[in-house]
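Q: Here's a chain of 78 amino acids. Please give me its 3D structure as C-alpha cells.
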Amino acid sequence: MTLEQMEYIVALDNYRHFVKAAEACGITQSTLSSMIQKLELELGVTIFDRKSHPIKPTDVGQEIIRQAKARGVDVTCE
C-alpha cells in the first residue's frame, strides 16, 4: 500500500463520495476509483461498500482507514 493509496482511502472515507474525494485529491473520479480497486485487489479485501449511498467503508475497510490515520495520513491528498 502506497502513501498515495492511503490518502485516497482516507479522502473517500471523509467525503463518502467518489467525485468529491477525487476533487479534493486533484485527480479524476476514474483515477480514484481505479486506484482504490487496485488496492483492494492487492489486499484481497473490499474496503468500501459501493452499494450504499453515501459510500461507506466495510468493517475491514474501517480498520485499514484507522491504521492509515494513525500513521498521520491526511485527507488533503497533497
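Q: Can you summarize the key feature?
A: The two ends are 17 Å apart (CA to CA).
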